[in-house]
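Action item from last meeting closed. Structure (478 res):
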């Protein structure tokens, strides 16, 4: 435990000694040799801890922390009156609810303050992303030193964003797997990925709206871009299980400056926009929200990112794109949202688009909807498109030896574009390269669309090289 304290002191301002998780460990030598300020905690089972012994012995250990001069001692609201205060110790009076966020969480906070807390602390379970708002409102409106957060994956935003609204501290684990509460991030993630120490009242808020969201690379990419641009901004993951439009409307009170939107919310979120641009009307979906002076504007950067990648392969990016793609025969594999977005963008440039999908009915339906043509998958081997685009997940990790088309389809000079970015080089791209095709990876598309989002939000050129490095590093770590 002492060794872990020494290790953690390099990452943290304060160390919490969870004595309920270390039964029998003596407190005095830990305090005598502490490398930085500490909180002494001995959490009982009734409040989510692991202490199940005599209550008098539990309180006695906390009192020992006070008597030995620990900087902070954390005691539960129902036990606070049993602690004799000391001149060198600030008392954290706490309340934990691992089941829900109470309807009137501000009343919980008031009881903690009235009990004489030097620092009031409540940690409650988020069962909905909107529970974060109720917790953050307490921080926004109190002047009393307070620790407030939501636990669980749905509460991650409160652990980070609380600093913007004056949270006294947030909790982190020393390493993944050593969390003392659900939803806890590591100290390395807070300090590095989210630049926690730089967050303040003027920090601009951005985020990604998705479900699931835990493995999204967008926070790493956009936070790295903000750091490279020297911007006071933070980008968070928002796991939205319900209506994304309701989430966006509710979170207006935090004045977020922009969001990325990904599966499964790219269509439903449109209802919350004040206006949308032509890319959204083309694709029938959006992946970007931009706050322009309080008006929320929707866009779809998937389309210009895909077109930009293809035009770059043709050597005409930024020159005369409409002529470069006119009448080029393009075969799109897939009939989902990505296929629709890319097809609409290409057709607006005058390309001839064929759509093939494992389920033929879906290909026919999409082709009819956007006035393209459908081709049966069994005929793909006989087609000779100039551009081939895979928008399916075929070839994605862990099924890396799969390909959406036979290698015989590929020929020299063809542009082959694979939307899959994990792995960065799929079997389709390996075979295309061997056949002499020009290859566009899913990483390029992913980085391009993220860079366009960054530019729409900030009005500055995105550091694309930095963003690509982050993606490749993350993929390299599996």
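Sequence:
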């Amino acid at each position: 435990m002492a060794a872990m304290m020494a290790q953690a002191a390099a990452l943290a301002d304060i160390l919490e000694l969870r004595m309920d998780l270390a039964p029998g460990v003596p407190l005095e030598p830990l305090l005598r040799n502490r490398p930085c300020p500490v909180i002494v905690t001995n959490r009982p089972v009734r409040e989510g801890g692991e202490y199940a012994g005599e209550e008098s012995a539990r309180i006695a250990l906390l009192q020992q922390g006070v008597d030995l001069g620990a900087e902070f001692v954390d005691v539960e609201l129902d036990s606070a009156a049993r602690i004799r205060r000391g001149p060198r110790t600030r008392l954290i009076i706490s309340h934990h609810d691992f089941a829900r966020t109470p309807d009137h969480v501000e009343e919980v906070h008031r009881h903690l303050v009235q009990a004489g807390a030097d620092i009031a602390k409540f940690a409650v379970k988020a069962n909905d992303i909107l529970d974060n708002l109720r917790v953050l409102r307490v921080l926004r409106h109190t002047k009393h030193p307070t620790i407030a957060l939501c636990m669980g994956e749905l509460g991650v935003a409160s652990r980070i964003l609380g600093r913007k609204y004056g949270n006294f501290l947030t909790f982190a684990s020393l390493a993944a797997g050593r969390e003392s509460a659900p939803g806890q991030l590591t100290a390395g993630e807070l300090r590095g990925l989210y630049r926690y120490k730089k967050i303040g009242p003027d920090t601009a808020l951005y985020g990604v709206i998705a479900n699931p969201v835990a493995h999204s690379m967008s926070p790493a990419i956009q936070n790295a871009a903000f750091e490279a641009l020297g911007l006071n901004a933070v980008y968070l993951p928002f796991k939205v299980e319900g209506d994304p439009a309701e989430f966006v409307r509710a979170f207006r009170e935090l004045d977020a400056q922009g969001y990325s939107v990904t599966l499964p919310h790219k269509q439903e979120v449109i209802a919350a926009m004040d206006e949308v641009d032509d890319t959204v009307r083309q694709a029938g979906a959006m992946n970007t929200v931009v706050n322009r002076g309080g008006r929320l504007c929707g866009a779809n950067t998937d389309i210009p990112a895909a077109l930009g990648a293809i035009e770059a392969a043709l050597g005409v990016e930024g020159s005369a794109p409409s002529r470069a793609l006119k009448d080029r025969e393009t075969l799109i594999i897939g009939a989902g949202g990505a296929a629709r977005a890319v097809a609409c963008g290409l057709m607006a440039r005058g390309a001839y688009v064929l759509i093939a999908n494992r389920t033929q009915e879906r290909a026919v339906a999409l082709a009819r909807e956007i006035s393209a043509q459908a081709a049966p998958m069994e005929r793909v081997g006989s087609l000779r498109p100039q551009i081939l685009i895979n928008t399916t997940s075929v070839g994605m990790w862990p099924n890396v030896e799969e390909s959406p088309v036979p290698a015989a389809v590929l020929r020299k000079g063809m542009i082959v574009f694979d939307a899959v970015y994990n792995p960065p080089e799929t079997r389709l791209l390996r075979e295309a390269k061997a056949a002499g095709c020009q290859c566009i990876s899913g990483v390029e598309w992913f980085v391009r669309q993220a860079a366009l989002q960054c530019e729409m939000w900030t009005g500055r050129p995105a550091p694309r090289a930095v963003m690509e490095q982050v993606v490749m590093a993350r993929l390299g770590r599996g």
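Note appended to the action item: DSSP finds 17 helices and 18 strands in the chain.
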